[in-house]
Amino acid sequence: MKVSVTVSGMSRLFGNDLAAVVDVARVADDAGIDQIVMPDHLAMGTRTDRYPFGKFPYPPEEPWLEPLSVLAAMSSATRRVRLATGVLIGPLRTALSVARTVATIDVLSRGRFDLGIGTGWQREEFTDRDLPFQGRAARMDDMVRACRVLWEQEPPVSFSSDSVEFSELWCEPRPVQRRLPIWYGGGATDATAARIVELGDGWLPLGVSDDDIARFVDRLRAEYVERGRDPATLGVRMTIRVMTNPAGRADIGATLAPIPRLERLGVTGISVSLGRFIRTRADVGSFLRDLAMARA
């Protein structure tokens, strides 16, 4: 079972020293954590009550560092830990900008980047008239297909869709990874399944019950086989709740106790969010070391 750490809750962890987020990656790298995940919001409006997966955990004034920029910095400060977005709001960006930035991070990290991607839920972030909230799912699909062409086909390459079109382009360098992993966030829906089976490599379930996870993983594996893909390559990363003891400190044993059950469901990796329970930056290192050691 792979263990990922999502770095959220910036104000609580770092106060006015947000640059210290890179230190978390260094500690995770040394501790043996498998993956560092950075979430994404370009801005935040007042209507956090529209969050579709329960109560939104942070106030509107919470700072959000741009994830691709942070992961590029983390790539130079680490040696082995994988670097991921969780999730990048794809429809807020253009295909060429994502293709170039992601390839750059993969090159700088020597092949350690995972692209987690989703459509986004907050209408207020979609301020560009050329990138509206409506139609964002179709634009994201076009963008990912275009990125696959730019990354995987021999240049010059061409592509045409409703929202992305180019002819005879070079977009070099391409990623180090021959197939850069793309993970889709979302529910157990037909649309999510179609995206993963055609374009993706993993699923980040959101607001899904255990029974639905098991059924959806079985469905994805069966559709992988139908397309000639190896079902053993499907990744499923689930965010789990960090359990605490009566003193309010993380209880690592209780936190990791669900792993055998999750493995039976088809989950291949877990993720914990630092900002939900870590009290201060000084607690980060000991928690990551304890987490990695307990998993081992």
User: How do the strands of the widest beta sheet line up side by side?
Assistant: 1-2-3-5-8-9-10-11
Largest sheet: 8 strands, parallel, barrel
Overall 3D shape: globular
Arithmetic mean of pLDDT:
95
How do the helices and strands follow one another from N- to C-terminus? Answer: EHHEHEEHEHEEEHEHEHHEH
How much beta, percentage-wise? 15-25%
Radius of gyration: 19 Å
Overall number of strands: 11
Distance between the termini: 9 Å
Q: Work out the helix count.
A: 10
- As residue ranges, the low-confidence spans are none
User: Which percent bin holds the helix content?
Assistant: 25-40%
Query: What structural category arises from helix and sheet content?
Result: alpha/beta
